């Protein structure tokens, strides 16, 4: 057998691939806002919502099929395909903005790198190591998105957007070369040969398969409704939020990059230090309710806020609201029977993937509906101040306020979720302590506005062992620029 790559397959190969891909996209945070406004000066929010919405829906539809194919053809080839097509739009930013945004939309069909990475990690780790490995991948993802926007803003201010795009392109090419030359195949030949020629069933490739099972259990149904109502506004929020800060609140490029970094670091602290403390003292369900409460407050603050200091204060609250989904993962694993863990987690990831497509389009449409446009604004001029945006509405951010209303309904639904465990109380307590770490990526992916992908149906990470909750990895979720 010919060994491709350097060394044995390991988690560190996956970490490098993820870091390079999302670091390259993070560099483009500031230039992309400029190009977006200059390309669509009259309906900026609406077009941004449509672009991100199409991308999210294509990712949701394609993830199961790519996952099933990677089980047959191996992970390495699909890492190469997903990274190549996800990064393909980058050089087009300065060459042809229209083609750039068109390619971003269509690249959603391949923006499932995290899904393949999770399968890669599952191939090279055993069950007890997997949570730690996922946590390392998540932390790497978060680190790339905390640092890269600030670096991109600095390069843009001193050397111009062309250099930023060039650097991002070179990093993306380095990632592709790394996969070609250094990443070994993680799926053993025996497994590939035994599955080669096996037909891919529609159930394996059907993105709606898990959603059709939602109503089979009342507790799971309540959790799924809560996830949908709370994650829909979050997915929309982070698709347009940085554009909103730049154009409506008049954040400079530097301020925007610092904002991303600060809120990102606070989110990581909230999901590690505070989440563990809250789950031990308040319990899983009450932690979910507290997170939803923080989300309501930050969305309402964003909706009514019109001053920069309000955005900073609401950003700190938003960091605390990031505890919601790790806590939901723990609650899901407690509420389902041990032999139904994979099915239930698949439902949650399916709903989140659907929200990643619907949320951005909804926010863009609401901004358009309330006449939050840039018709009377001049093109962005670096870090210079611009006149406030004349709004035809008393509410600066109407979609955020509507989002707060949907989260209020999610909060009311969550009140009726019963707290129960599938194992003994001691085992349940262990599961509470062990669950939170992998999910730091959740808020950061959303925070950075990057590709949001879901674990693949049929892959190892979505099929935990039918044992006690203590051995179950929480739901992990990726995202976009």
Automatic annotation (TrEMBL):
The lineage of its organism: Eukaryota, Metazoa, Chordata, Craniata, Vertebrata. The keyword Lyase does not apply. The chain crosses the membrane at residues 12-33, 45-66, 73-92, 98-121, 133-157, 163-183, 220-244, 256-279, 286-304, 310-332, 353-374, 394-417. It comes from the Eukaryota. This is Major facilitator superfamily (MFS) profile domain-containing protein. Its main location: membrane. One of its GO terms (cellular component) is membrane. The keyword Lipid biosynthesis does not apply. Keywords: Membrane, Transmembrane, Transmembrane helix, Transport. It comes from Astatotilapia calliptera. One of its GO terms (molecular function) is transmembrane transporter activity. Belongs to the major facilitator superfamily. The gene is MFSD14B. Residues 10-422 form the Major facilitator superfamily (MFS) profile domain. Residues 423-470 are annotated as: Disordered. It is a multi-pass membrane protein. Residues 423-432 have a biased composition (Low complexity). It is found in: Membrane.
């Amino acid at each position: 057998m010919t060994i491709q790559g350097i060394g044995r397959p390991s988690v560190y190969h996956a970490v490098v691939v993820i870091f390079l891909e999302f670091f390259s996209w993070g560099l483009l945070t500031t230039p992309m806002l400029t190009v977006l406004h200059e390309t669509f000066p009259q309906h900026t929010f609406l077009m941004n919502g449509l672009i991100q919405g199409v991308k999210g829906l294509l990712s949701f539809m394609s993830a199961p099929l790519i996952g099933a194919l990677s089980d047959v053809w191996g992970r390495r080839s699909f890492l190469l395909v997903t990274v190549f097509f996800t990064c393909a739009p980058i050089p087009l930013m300065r060459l042809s903005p229209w083609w750039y945004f068109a390619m971003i939309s269509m690249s959603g069909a391949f923006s499932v790198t995290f899904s393949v990475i999770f399968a890669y990690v599952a191939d090279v780790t055993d069950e007890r190591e997997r949570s730690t490995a996922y946590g390392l991948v998540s932390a790497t993802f978060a680190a790339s998105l905390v640092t890269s926007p600030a670096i991109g803003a600095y390069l843009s201010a001193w050397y111009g957007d062309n250099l930023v795009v060039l650097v991002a392109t070179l990093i993306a090419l380095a990632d592709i070369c790394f996969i070609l030359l250094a990443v070994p195949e993680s799926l053993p030949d025996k497994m590939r040969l035994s599955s080669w020629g096996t037909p891919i069933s529609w159930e394996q490739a059907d993105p709606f398969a898990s959603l059709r099972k939602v109503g089979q259990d009342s507790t799971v149904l309540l959790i799924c409704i809560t996830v949908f109502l709370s994650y829909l506004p979050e997915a929309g929020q982070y698709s347009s939020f940085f554009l909103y800060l730049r154009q409506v609140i008049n954040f400079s490029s530097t301020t925007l990059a610092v904002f991303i970094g600060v809120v990102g670091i606070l989110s990581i602290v909230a999901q590690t230090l505070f989440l563990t403390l809250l789950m031990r003292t308040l319990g899983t369900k009450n932690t979910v309710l507290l997170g939803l409460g923080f989300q309501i407050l930050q969305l309402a603050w964003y909706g009514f806020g019109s001053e920069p200091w309000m955005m900073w204060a609401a950003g700190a609250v938003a960091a605390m609201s990031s505890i919601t989904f790790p806590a939901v993962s723990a609650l899901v694993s407690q509420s389902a029977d041990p032999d139904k863990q994979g099915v239930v987690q698949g439902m949650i990831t399916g709903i989140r993937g659907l929200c990643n497509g619907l949320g951005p389009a909804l926010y863009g449409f609401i901004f358009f509906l309330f006449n939050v446009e840039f018709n009377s604004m001049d093109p962005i001029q670096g870090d210079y101040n611009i006149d406030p945006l004349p709004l035809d509405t008393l509410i600066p951010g109407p979609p955020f306020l509507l989002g707060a209303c949907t989260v209020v309904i999610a909060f009311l639904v969550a009140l009726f979720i019963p707290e129960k465990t599938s194992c003994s109380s001691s085992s349940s307590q262990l599961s509470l302590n062990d669950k939170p770490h992998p999910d730091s990526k959740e808020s950061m992916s959303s925070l950075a506005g990057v590709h949001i992908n879901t674990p693949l149906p049929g892959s190892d990470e979505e099929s935990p062992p039918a044992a006690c909750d203590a051995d179950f990895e929480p739901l992990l979720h990726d995202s976009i620029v």
